[in-house]
Amino acid sequence: MPLAAARRHPVLVAAATLVALALGVTGADRAVAQHIQHCTADAFQQATGTPRAPQVTIDGFPVLSQVVAGRLNHVGITAHGIPAAPADGRLPVTRLDLDLTGVRRSGDEQAARADSAKAGAFLSYDDLSSALGLGITVGDRPGCVDAQVLLPLVGAGTVTAKVSAGAANTIVFTAAHLAAGDLPDAGTQLLAKIFDQPIPLHNIPQGLHLDALRASASGLEAQLAGDNVTFRTGAPPAGA
Which domains are delineated in the chain? Predict the structure, then answer.
């Protein structure tokens, strides 16, 4: 805009200046948010051993003021393929969706703490089958899973067990019984023992508690929640 025109339209000049400043602040704010998201994703991947970095989102504007205050209002993390060692009696988590509120750096430089958190964990039947060494599918009865087994020189059969949330973030199988097949009593008892011990979830942030568990068509769906939840960035969290 020529100088003479600018003098005739001071309101337009002021508006254009405010827009330019706003765009600059917005750009800087997004750059800070992207940097934090990248660092969080990298730390989570290192801590849990996921094959790829999770998706991280930071809500709220401006993020800069949240950083200055030392508290992020809301952070979302979606991770896939959190591994576990089957030999340790643990289950891998196929997908984990974390919803963290009030996230701040803990006194431990390798940890962050959220005022509260909710999470949804999905465990596919393929991952569950690999962990248990059985072919697991959804059961015919609500809340149950079926295990298809073939024991050499003994027989084949389908064992049904009820699945539910147990203490200390564990998955519990109860009321296991032979639903179909020709296994002798000894074989059925042997298979039932596989379901005797609770199976802990792996790499769940400390402070989250398993509230509900259901058997869906494709896997187990768990709901977790908690207060003062710790996300450890430098090493696997408690229970890992």
Answer: 8-121+225-232 (no CATH), 127-199 (3.30.310)
